[in-house]
Amino acid sequence: LCTRSNTEINAINQQYKLKYGRSLEKDVVSETSGHFKRLLVSMCQGARDENATPNMELARREAQELYQAGERKWGTDESKFNQILAVRSFPQLRATFEE
Known about the structure:
The protein has about 100 residues and is an all-alpha fold. About 65% of the residues lie in helices and about 0% in strands.
């Protein structure tokens, strides 16, 4: 799901429902837990920004936020990673990672 477009995720959700008679998201919720569950639920939404042009100011700010949420603290703030990784466009993520 992480590498799929919103259109592809919506198609996956539809096919899953046709094949199994239930929602992929509901199965993800019942079969996973913790931060992994939250990431997968976010991915099931198919709500990633698909803008091809990265916002460099946003990339710098979110690179700093990811650093603060991970490297610079004891433990990791997975919710911040989820918030950014699940909704930003692939070009935006690339720009953030390069910062």
